[in-house]
Write a structure and sequence with these properties.
It is a single chain. The protein has about 60 residues and is mainly β. The protein has one domain. The strands form two sheets. Strands 1-4-5-6 form a four-stranded antiparallel sheet, with no helix packed on it. A two-stranded parallel sheet has the order 2-3. It is globular. The termini are far apart. The protein is built from no helices and six strands. A hairpin with a 6-residue loop joins strand 4 and strand 5.
């Protein structure tokens, strides 16, 4: 199993929403507002780490469109 590490902070989730019509950058369907998200040491830009109450959880970004 690959070991993922933080690279740099990308930002924070602004809003949690289920609406795909008004979905914007830093919106999420599962992550809560204020959740910090980080890039990883992986070259895949769609793999991020979310820091939830000190626990690092690996996510794959789903593109809306």
């Amino acid at each position: 199993m690959k070991c993922y590490r933080y690279r740099r902070k990308i930002g924070e989730i602004i809003k949690t929403t289920n609406s795909s019509e008004k979905f914007k950058d830093f919106y999420a369907t599962k992550l809560e507002s204020g959740t910090e998200i980080f890039s990883t040491n992986d070259k895949n830009i769609y793999t991020i780490i979310a820091d939830i109450n000190g626990q690092q959880i690996l996510y794959t970004v789903l593109l809306e469109g």
